[in-house]
């Protein structure tokens, strides 16, 4: 009985520490949002790109290592991505427009919502199919997984192009010279490599 009480005490202590940490994280996030009104156009753009970079690093890690992961690891990584997207969306939704321009922020939200949907629906279904024992995976399963992957890839290119167009408009409106979104360029390069004939 004493062991159970000790274990419960430790669990309560851990929950308490985690909740304090969570409160501190939320306070620092709110402070970051309040600082946005003091940002230059480049800093505002870079803060939005920062949200995307956090997500895309996890997305690229997931897609590049998909074959090497077991189904538990795949689901774990998928859930990490969705968690990161939810955090980014929460912060972006609080971000005020930059001198009346909310198009860049809204494009980033659309971008994040695309990934959230793709991972919560298509990739979750791919993982579900891949959980089957290898001998039970049918030709239709393989076709379905390929169709899902292709659907995401096609939409992904369009979402990135749309974001880049709006970002270039933002650059023009606020006279930002010589900037290119390296993140979108990397993604487009990876997608083109995927679709090259072998």
Task: Offer a concise description of the structure.
This protein is an all-alpha fold.
Overview of the molecule:
- This protein is an all-alpha fold and 198 residues long.
- The protein has two domains: 1-38; 40-195.
- The chain contains six helices and no strands.
- Helix 2 runs antiparallel to helix 3, helix 2 runs parallel beside helix 4 and helix 3 runs antiparallel to helix 4.
- The model is unreliable at 1-23 (pLDDT under 50).
How many H/I helical runs?
A: 6
Q: Give me the count of strands.
A: 0
As a whole number of angstroms, the C-alpha radius of gyration is 21 Å
How many individual domains? 2
**Alpha-beta content class:** mainly alpha
Mean pLDDT: 83
Order of helices and strands: HHHHHH
Strand content: under 5%
Instruction: Please describe the biggest sheet, giving its number of strands, its sense, and whether it closes into a barrel.
Output: none
Oligomer: single chain
* Distance between the ends: 65 Å
Shape: elongated
Keywords:
2 domains; 0% strand; 198 residues; single chain
List the helices and strands and how they pair.
Layout lengths: L1 H33 L6 H25 L5 H24 L8 H28 L8 H35 L8 H14 L3
Helix pairs in contact: 2-3, 2-4, 3-4, 4-5, 5-6
